[in-house]
């Protein structure tokens, strides 16, 4: 439905030009929910602005349903936009806000009204048509903004950090609702966020960006299980990333010998050990393994993140059940579970294992 081919955008003049998007290729299929994820400044907003027609290209093409959008103005693209600061019109009531796009498209009044009521039902604000937007909570305003974006039935809905202003609890609830809603409506969605949790809960596919380029694209589970690089792994919040020399079925690291999956690339690599793969054992049981001191524990629902200070090498994060978590200051041994070890390509600038 949406194709970006070799899209490049630069800002600034020659000498201090900055490439915000660098030869980006991206496809979004009809009914697909794609979430673009990346640190601040990686080009996410620019990507959406390019698709909307708000940002001219320095190279490449944007196609919607196969038609090149060069020269097609914003209001002719049939895309809906919802930004972080959702900017409702404060002087209009809820109905007036939701009907905005319908008025622009010259939809008759009684049909506008019917559609507004339908949308307010849809976003969980039935009967809110006459309410003042200033009197709504942040979450309610977000729903109004969503209803407004959906009203003209855009072929593609684009969301830029849509839930960024809301507190975590509300965000987590809204994200689940949004996914259900989009699934029911069959909406094609391109959303951007810097929050991994949001992206993974919302998307059929996540696209991780770095410095104007796509670092990885894949189903949430796939990206979570097999980050393509140390950058992606770290961005997802994995901190057990270490230089390694892989030989056969094991890798040598500052943390000692770590088993690697069969068929792993050999030689100088980078290793990711997910916290679940860091197994705590009695110090004596870690035969030839790693001895550590428990530096901190953080409760995360029914699991505990345990930060370990090894005898050698950087700190290591382990994860265990509520009742198995050792005390702070305790001496523990560590063994590694191969199913949570991922071999990543060595990145430029990383030091060797030795
Ligand atoms: P993100 O949304 O991922 O935070 P942006 O797409 O907003 O990133 O920005 C990508 C890069 O382009 C950043 O380095 C940013 O400073 C730059 N940039 C974005 N918009 C402009 C602009 N209008 N003028 C100059 N530089 C810009
Ligand atoms: Mg942005």
Keyword list:
354 residues, alpha+beta, Rossmann fold, OB fold (Dihydrolipoamide Acetyltransferase, E2P), 2 domains, six-stranded mixed β-sheet, five-stranded antiparallel β-sheet, 9 helices, 34% strand, binds adenosine-5'-diphosphate, binds magnesium ion
Structure, explained:
It is a single chain. The chain has 354 residues and is α+β, with helices and mostly antiparallel strands. It has 2 domains: 2-230, P-loop containing nucleotide triphosphate hydrolases (Rossmann fold); 237-344, Beta Barrel (OB fold (Dihydrolipoamide Acetyltransferase, E2P)), CATH 2.40.50.140. 23% of the residues lie in helices and 34% in strands. The protein has 9 helices and 20 strands. The strands form 4 sheets. The chain has a 6-stranded mixed β-sheet with strand order 6-7-8-3-9-10, with helices on both faces. Helix 4 (109-122) crosses helix 5 and helix 6 runs parallel beside helix 7 (196-202). The longest helix has 18 residues, at 168-185. The N and C termini lie far apart (49 Å). 37% of the residues are buried. The mean pLDDT is 90. The structure holds adenosine-5'-diphosphate and magnesium ion (MG). Adenosine-5'-diphosphate is lined by residues 11, 18, 20, 38, 40-46.
